[in-house]
Recover the amino acids of this structure.
């Protein structure tokens, strides 16, 4: 049975000593005053906290950050890497609207709801992906700071690589791809039994080279690096790095459990944010010279629309006074959607199920982690992935989008997890291989049906929304499934639980794909720079209002977007500094 863990005191002290701040205890978010802010940031995830840390380096500037969720940094489930799949307490319970491409199903689209945002709850994987994506961003946005060359500098500025003891057969990491930034990145210390056979099979079957995915490559296979501290194998996230650096500065104030309900305007000038202190149920309004929304790709357009900035017809339909008709707000929603398989594993293979249900395995793992941060608890589950292109012939007669993508961009991503994704197999020790569409042709959107901030937005996720996207997932799903019949992999995964050996016809396979489709939780692009925003992150048609982070991305990156979220925050901060005359120390 799952249970909560306490980090041994020695490991906790080591984790805290890795951050440089003047106080002797964990920094505490201040409750603060009601004085006007120079910059008011809504959202305490990677982009918001990077912007806050950079701007608060100017002691003349008063920066306030609001985060709807709590401070979760001392929860053992948060800082223990293998426990990330249990972090339901710190999530926005978003769901896609019933999707016709999934037979009316509505998969969850959970997002982080805590100081640290997604970085406090994610699987910690860190990568950058294909350079051509960023060069396209620069062209679409008119902001040259989004080019690969500039973004590579931002990736370096936000990270630091810590060497760890790692398996001898792991490909070395190009450490020159990192700098002296706060976010700690390291390699996998402990290999799951399936990792190396999986790497080898992906390499041979798909003709992939093993690479590090941080140095300018989009296609290959990797035992990826993670946002984990090497010295104690605890999560490194936006709050316990950038946040803790800034929070003791007298000009920086953090308010958590502060759920923003509306941005106030005087005419066309964003002037304030009203929020609900969810600990007391009281409402507060903070005035600000500049407001920066960094509430993620779902929360950011939702807040803008609640505040009167969005498609006028949608706002008027729910009784919201239109401040600015912005048709592109909430459009261009993109995500990495996947469909999965499920296999029962051999007893010798370490899985999340064993940590949660096998008392002997759990005790052994806890003892090893307490001793030196090692073993199963010190690694992010399912650390291997491969990206690849599929044959152009798959798209015959289906248009040119996928075949015309730049050569460094993959079509698909294969990965696996040992977390129990399907509840009907909760009594089995399983792995769930999944394949994701990396550069979808179809895009979704976000809208609202209520003026009440407590009502969730309507998320039209657009799973497999074009014939070409559908052809890609069907081809990849079949190809992936065939890999698990090989002797190299089937010796670890002897029984296919889902979709099951009897599922063989094209119609049944498509039904299985639909029933097992889900989100990689990587939404981006819903308030894109170059369309909804100008080249300096400002919302068109109003003043005093910027949007940064993943919602501002013009399109999807080709792997996990965590690293990109930090880099986007850094680039936005540098642009704000230059445009507004901020003097950072």
């Amino acid at each position: 049975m799952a249970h909560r863990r306490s980090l041994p005191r020695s490991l906790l002290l080591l984790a805290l000593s890795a951050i440089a701040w003047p106080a002797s205890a964990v920094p505490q978010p201040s409750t603060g005053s009601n004085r006007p802010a120079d910059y008011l940031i809504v959202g305490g995830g990677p982009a918001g906290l990077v912007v806050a840390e950079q701007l608060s380096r100017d002691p003349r500037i008063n920066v306030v950050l609001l985060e709807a969720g709590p401070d979760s940094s001392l929860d053992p489930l948060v800082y223990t890497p293998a426990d990330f799949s249990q972090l339901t307490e710190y999530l926005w319970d978003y769901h896609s609207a019933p999707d016709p491409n999934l037979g009316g199903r509505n998969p969850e689209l959970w997002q982080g709801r805590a100081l640290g945002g997604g970085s406090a709850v994610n699987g910690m994987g860190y990568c950058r992906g294909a350079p051509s994506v960023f060069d396209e961003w620069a062209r679409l946005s008119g902001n040259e700071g989004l080019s690969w060359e500039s973004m590579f500098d931002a990736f370096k500025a936000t990270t630091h690589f810590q060497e760890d003891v790692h398996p001898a057969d792991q490909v070395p990491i190009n450490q020159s791809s990192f700098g002296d930034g706060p976010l700690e990145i390291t390699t996998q210390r402990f290999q799951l039994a399936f990792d190396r056979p999986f790497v080898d099979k992906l390499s041979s079957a798909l003709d992939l080279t093993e690479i590090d995915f941080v140095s300018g490559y989009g296609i290959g296979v990797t035992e990826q690096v993670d946002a984990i501290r090497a010295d104690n194998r605890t999560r490194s996230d936006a709050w316990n790095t950038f946040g803790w650096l800034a929070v003791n500065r007298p000009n920086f104030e953090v308010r958590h459990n502060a759920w923003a309900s509306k941005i106030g305007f005087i005419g066309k000038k964003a002037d304030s944010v009203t929020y609900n202190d969810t600990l007391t149920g009281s409402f507060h309004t903070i005035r600000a010279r500049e407001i920066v929304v960094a509430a993620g790709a779902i929360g950011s357009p939702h807040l803008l629309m609640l505040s009167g900035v969005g498609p006028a017809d949608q706002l008027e339909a729910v009784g919201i006074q239109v401040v600015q008709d912005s048709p592109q707000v909430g459009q261009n929603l993109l995500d990495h959607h996947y469909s999965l398989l499920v296999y029962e594993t051999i007893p010798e293979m370490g899985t999340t199920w064993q940590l949660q249900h096998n008392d002997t395995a759990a005790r052994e793992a806890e003892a090893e982690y307490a001793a030196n941060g090692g073993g199963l608890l010190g690694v992010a589950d399912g650390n291997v992935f491969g990206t690849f292109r599929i044959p152009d012939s798959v798209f015959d007669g289906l248009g040119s989008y996928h075949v015309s993508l730049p050569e460094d961009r993959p079509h698909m991503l294969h990965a696996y997890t040992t977390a129990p994704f399907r509840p009907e197999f909760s009594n089995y020790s399983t792995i769930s291989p999944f394949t994701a569409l990396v550069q979808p042709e179809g895009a979704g959107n976000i809208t609202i049906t209520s003026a009440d901030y407590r009502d969730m937005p309507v998320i039209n996720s657009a799973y497999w929304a074009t014939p070409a996207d559908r052809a890609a997932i069907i081809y990849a799903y079949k190809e992936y499934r065939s890999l698990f019949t090989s002797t190299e992999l089937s010796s670890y995964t002897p029984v296919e639980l889902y979709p099951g050996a009897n599922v063989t016809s094209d119609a049944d396979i498509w039904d299985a794909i639909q029933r097992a489709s889900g989100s990689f939780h990587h939404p981006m692009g819903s308030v894109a720079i170059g369309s909804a925003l100008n080249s300096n992150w400002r919302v068109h048609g109003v003043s005093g209002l910027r949007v940064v982070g993943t919602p501002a991305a013009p399109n999807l990156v080709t792997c996990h977007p965590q690293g990109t979220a930090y880099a986007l925050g850094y680039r936005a901060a540098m642009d704000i500094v230059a445009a507004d005359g901020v003097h950072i120390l």
User: Anything to note?
Assistant: Residues 1-32 have pLDDT under 50 and may be disordered. Residues 562-580 form the longest helix (19 residues).
